[in-house]
Amino acid sequence: MKKDLNLLYNNIELSDNFPPDDISESSFEEIAVPYLQNPPKTIDISVGRQLFVDDFLIEGTTLERIEHRPTEYLENPIFKAETNWETGTPEREWEEIRPSAAILFGGGVWYDGKLDKYRMWYTASFHGSVAYAESDDGIHFKRVNSDIYENSNLVLPRGGSFFDTNSVILNHYRENPMQEEYVMSLYVRPERCERVGCNIYTSNDGIHWTMRAHTAGVDDTTTIFYNPFRKKWVYSIKKNDAEFGRRREYCECDTLPQGRELKDRVFWLRADEKDLRHQVWNVRPELYVFNSVAYESIMLGEYTVFKGPQNDISMKRGLPKVTELHIGYSRDGFHYSRQTDRTAFIKPSEKDGKWDCGYIHCPSSICTIQDDILVFYYSAFAGDSDMIDPNYEERNGMYSNGSIGVAFLRRDGFASMSGKGELITRNLKFDGEYFFINAASRNLRAEITDENGVTISGFEAENCIPFNGDSCKQLMKWKTKGSLSELKGKIIKIRFIQDDGDLYTFWISKSPKGESGGYLAGGEKGKLGLCDI
Fold it and tell me: Can you tell me whether residue 344 is helix, strand or coil?
């Protein structure tokens, strides 16, 4: 019975000691991913689109994996400081001057299908209040005033506190027993505040928030996310020391704790020896922030990697530190594999005065889905080299002129199996009927075999109707077989053959419309919840 509880949706079996506590804190070697070293004998692909971001699904191939990067929106930034709360303009003599910013210092951008709106929670000025805006198209956001504070769009005013990173989670997961529609974690800094640490808030409308718990013993940039595959809330806890720099600890729970220290935590993630050093600053890279969200059949992770310089140098320049966004993938919710090419997924321009000069951060939602496009939201700082002041948190340009931009990637487009050749999967089983692919290919065919590699009659490659074109959701058929219903529950392998092009994903749907049953990151336009059903 215990083993059944440890068996995941994809047939990965967790160890009895999970989460594991044996990851070395002092090593900078790449952290091993057990399920890639020892994959299940048979992989269940019933949930979500199946991504070729690693070798988990692949028994053998002559195709080449190509890793892709998003394209930045030409009209960035899409959102910048305008109100007095954001620009740091004091309205009263006692108010402090704050660096100008409207940023996703965490926060969240989610498509809320119940309201048919993109909803954005962001930070107004550096270390400022939590504010709210919304959009019909996910690009053009308008501030929405409420009754919270002086007819402004502030939903959690800063008051006398210094707010740091927050995470806003749209709680539209079927698996989650919590009743509240929205959950927020908010780190409060030590300056002039008694509730230092990670505070948990909930809300039924995203506007009126109630504090539920105060968690001490964690550092700034600590965030939360929800793993619907395992029905667990996860704290991504910052760990920092002089020798090893910024890293992450992990703590999971069935429901968010009601005001206690996070004692059941283990060392988790760090930058490693494969992360590239900055050509100028040449400091050892550090893991500044880590967020994760369920996307299709995986947990999609976004690493904010620090490349230098340290605060004292940035203060002398009045320019932001260099952080980059990198992507990782997990199939058990704890171990993440990184892209082989460690160049940034999204990087700063490092140009003085440009909106994205440096200090890039991402929201808890990571991305939303619009038809065939993934939209990645991120904030960055232009800095201000004319603002040189020893009070870096209030009057130094290193944290000034922050705004929000977007970048676009093909749906499922993190990696593709490319070129001319074949790919054979490991043993698979499924609970569906209709075979779909996401590909831009020439003469792509699929052949179904049994677990011994013997082709199943009617599902031969020569009987497959070849695909020529570019589609993020293409139904594949065989001349005498319209679906895979007769193979449901059986162990099979799939052989893909193409003359050229890119194969991104495949999945077997219960519907001829192609719903994957997987998860939708920050939501998909037109979908009610966060699952593709």
Answer: coil
Q: Token pair for residue 178?
A: 């919590």
**Exposed/middle/buried for 280, CB within 10 Å: 0-12, 13-18, 19+?**
exposed
pLDDT on residue 94: 40
Place of tokens 């299908």: 113
Write the pLDDT tens digit of every residue in 439-483: 999 999 999 999 999 999 999 999 999 999 999 999 999 999 989
Residues 468 and 442 sit within 8 Å (Cβ to Cβ): yes
Contact 367, 522 (CB under 8 A): yes
Say if residues 500 and 468 touch (Cβ distance below 8 Å): no
Confidence of residue 195 (pLDDT cuts 50, 70, 90): low
> Among 326, 365, 351, 364, which Cα is nearest to 401's?
351
CA-to-CA distance for 498 and 472, rounded, in angstroms? 16
Res 1: pLDDT: 35
* pLDDT, greater one: 52 or 178: 52
Give the tens place of pLDDT for each residue, 372-387.
999 999 999 999 888 8
Alpha-carbon distance 412 to 51, whole Å?
Answer: 7
Cα gap 403→132, rounded to integer Å: 14
pTM for the whole thing?
Answer: 0.95
Instruction: Determine the Cα–Cα distance for residues 413 and 182; give it in Å rounded to an integer.
Output: 29
- The Cα diameter of the chain in Å comes to 81
Say yes or no to pLDDT of 417 above 80: yes
**pLDDT number for residue 160:** 66
Count of residues in the chain: 533
- Residue 457 CB partners (closer than 8 Å, separation 6+): none
Helix (H, G, I), strand (E, B) or coil at 5: helix
pLDDT at 286: 97
Phi-psi region of 364 (alpha: psi -120 to 50; beta: other; left: phi over 0): alpha
What's CA 6's distance to the chain center, in Å?
A: 24
Tokens standing for residue 201? 């808030």
Q: What is the mean pLDDT of residues 424-445?
A: 98
- Of 44, 74, 72, which Cα lies nearest the Cα of 56? 44
* C-alpha triplet 72, 78, 79: angle, nearest 5°: 140
Closest by alpha carbon to 87, among 122, 124, 120? 124
Contact (Cβ atoms closer than 8 angstroms) between residue 525 and residue 444: no
CA distance 441 to 421: 11
> What integer pLDDT is reported at residue 179 of this predicted model?
75
DSSP 162: -
Instruction: Give pLDDT, residue 192.
Output: 54
Asked whether 519 and 295 are in contact (CB, 8 A), the reply is: yes
Residue 462: what are its φ and ψ, rounded to 5°?
Answer: -70, -15
pLDDT band at 135 (very low <50, low <70, confident <90, very high): very high
Identity at 309, one-letter amino acid code = P
Name which of 478, 406, 515 is nearest 109 in CA terms: 406
Do residues 214 and 259 make contact, with C-beta atoms less than 8 angstroms apart? yes
Q: How far apart are CA 287 and CA 299, in angstroms?
A: 18
